[in-house]
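Example record

One chain of 198 residues, shown exactly as stored in the release files.
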Amino acid sequence: MINMISHIYGEIAHRGESFVVIDVGGIGYQVNVTQPALAELGGRKEKVKLYTHLHVREDALMLYGFTSASELEMFKLLISVTRVGPQIALNILSQIRIEELAAAIINEDEKVLTRISGVGPKNAKRLILELRDKMKKKMEGIVLAGVSSANYDAVSALVSLGFTQREAKEAVDAVAAGLKEPTVQALVKAALARLKER
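Predicted structure tokens for this chain:
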């Protein structure tokens, strides 16, 4: 189906817990967004551009918005998976950056995927099975640009220790630049020290 509204540009008129209302020429469009996007968008009266997907149901038209075209592309890939609807996809993207999600699927890393709230072992297997090849074609450039192999392995190690994907990624990113030799072991050690300081 052709997406009728490819993007939306206007002022933020209202912010909810999981959506923003964008005022475009006096018409308010309610756009569902991820939690990181909600934090990034700023306060009222600020003009923003969101890349959008219009989801049509029998009883409603739902608009989903993203701060980058890559995030929108990932959303479309997720909702193409069996039993993954827009709300589940939005929940996934609220908890993990698209680079790590793509890397986890390409590398068949079920452990990282099942750390996402709402994604059980069956869903993780389904995501890998249905998206692995598509992800390699569409998202590998994003993965290579966003996550080095050492960083990815360090994040995976921290996730296996019980930290969330976002906590682990933020800690690894924060310490990586300060290390002369950012090996997996060095990254994990430095990131753990940083996480314990909180």
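Notes: The mean pLDDT is 87.
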